[in-house]
Amino acid sequence: MSGPVNGEDFHGAYGDPGRPVRAEGPDGFDTHTTGLPYGAVAPETTAQFPGAEAPTAPRAPEGLVPSGAPEPELRRGVPAHVGHRPPSYPPHPLGRPSVRDADEFAAFSHAVLLDGARIGRLTVRAASVRGDSHNWEGSCRQDAMTVTRIGPPGAEMLLLAVADGVGSARYSHVGSHRFSRLAAVYLDREAESIHAALCAQQKDELRVLATKAVAGAAAELRSAWARSAQHKPRPYADEDYATTLHVLLILTDPGIRDRVLCSVGDGGLFVLRDGHWENGDPDDGEGLLDTRTEALPHAYRSVKTTLLRTVPGEVLLLGTDGITNPLTQKDPEFARHLADAWGGPEVPSLSDFLWQAQTRAKSYDDDRTVICVWEEGA
Asked: H helices of the chain, where?
């Protein structure tokens, strides 16, 4: 949440602001790659070598592809970008935290998480990617996500969660990771009551149950963090772990069409209908960007709940503001690009989904976490 939006800084809750011919490089890179199998090295683009002629597609060595068979597809390489100008930051992971920085969690955090599932008629693809600005700074990914199932067989639900650590919070990467998981544990304890309230469309009861579960997770985490801080020079402070949280619950029973979104802070849910993205919560001020957001573990009033009904063929997108903000930008190119990628007849493979989720747009360089759900028809 610390990256700039539309050319301006976007702050968190606490205000924290194939290949052209070239000469052999000094490191012998060309000599090293000559002996590698075909396709092991992604082709470079003319953007990386200004003034170079447009490269032609490399061909496999003779005899590698049987006569008459289609040539292997080229590797995707650098993620695509929308807009007239490419983003300012390079798209590659650069530096990263060190174990000696006294934050082991940051040092061992992955730059990319990729997940997926097939449960009954539901197919899930999920990716959490370190943003370009964090890549450039060498800081860790502050987003987190969870894909799991909760509840007993008669009241089973698919639980999808995304969390976005507040950019100014010292340990927000810890907060987002722990809340996205522990909230699932506490919601599982209320699963049968949630199932009954969802079947009865009791929005107020769902809000009470969700608030109870999230408050229980917050109390457990605050207690654990406070005990841990007793052995550290820095005293415990709630704001150090500040994070948003969005949890989508989908009953695995295909006969029940209602879903519930439980939310604290910005980010949220979109639904792809008839080729267009619609805000899954029409009351949240779509298109408005605020410099503040509610956040866990303490800077929130209650858990907001939203009921929605979907039909097979519609795609649900749950995301942090790293993807929901560009979806709502005035230029619709980004939204159109993802609608084309994810609104087709086929669910993308995990690798394709990751590459598509990394589509870049200038001025939107925060961490990006996105979970999509497709449902087959009867």
From this structure: 29-34, 104-107, 132-137, 172-189, 191-199, 203-229, 321-327, 333-342, 350-357
The rounded distance, in Å, linking the Cα atoms of 280 and 286 is: 10
Rounded Cα–Cα distance for residues 6 and 95 (Å): 25
Q: What is the DSSP string of 98-137?
A: -GGGS-HHHHT--SEEEEEEEETTEEEEEEEE--HHHHHH
Can you give the pLDDT at residue 45? 38
Phi, psi (rounded to 5 degrees) for 105: -60, -45
Measured CA to CA, the distance from residue 354 to residue 113 in angstroms comes to: 9
Q: Which of 63-77, 162-176, 198-212 has the lowest mean pLDDT?
A: 63-77
Over 50: is that where the pLDDT of 135 sits? yes
What CA–CA distance (Å, rounded) separates 340 from 356?
10
Dump pLDDT digits (tens) for 302-329. Answer: 899 999 999 999 999 999 999 999 999 8
CA distances from 271 to 156, 281, 282 (A): 22, 10, 11
Contacts of 9 (CB under 8 A, 6+ apart): 17
- What is the distance between the alpha carbons of residues 342 and 346, in angstroms, rounded to a whole number? 8
Residue 214 to residue 56: CA distance in whole angstroms: 55
Cα–Cα dist 175/218, whole Å: 10
CA 215, 220, 223, 225 torsion-angle sign: negative
Question: Rounded to the nearest 5 degrees, what angle is found at the Cα of 150, between the Cα atoms of 319 and 373?
Answer: 35
**Residue 76: phi, psi to the nearest 5?**
-70, -35
Residue with token string 């060595």:
61
- Evaluate the omega torsion of the peptide bond into residue 297 and state whether it is cis, within 30 degrees of 0: yes
Task: Report whether 82 contacts 56 (CB < 8 A).
Answer: no
User: How confident is residue 75, by pLDDT bands cut at 50, 70 and 90?
Assistant: low
Residue 368 sits at the vertex; the CA angle it makes with 124 and 306, to the nearest 5 degrees, is 60
Which tens digits make up the pLDDT trace of 256-277? Answer: 999 999 999 999 999 999 999 9
Q: What is the side-by-side order of every strand in the sheet holding 122-129?
A: 112-119, 122-129, 368-375, 315-319, 268-273, 276-279
Cα 51 from Cα 126, distance rounded (Å)? 38
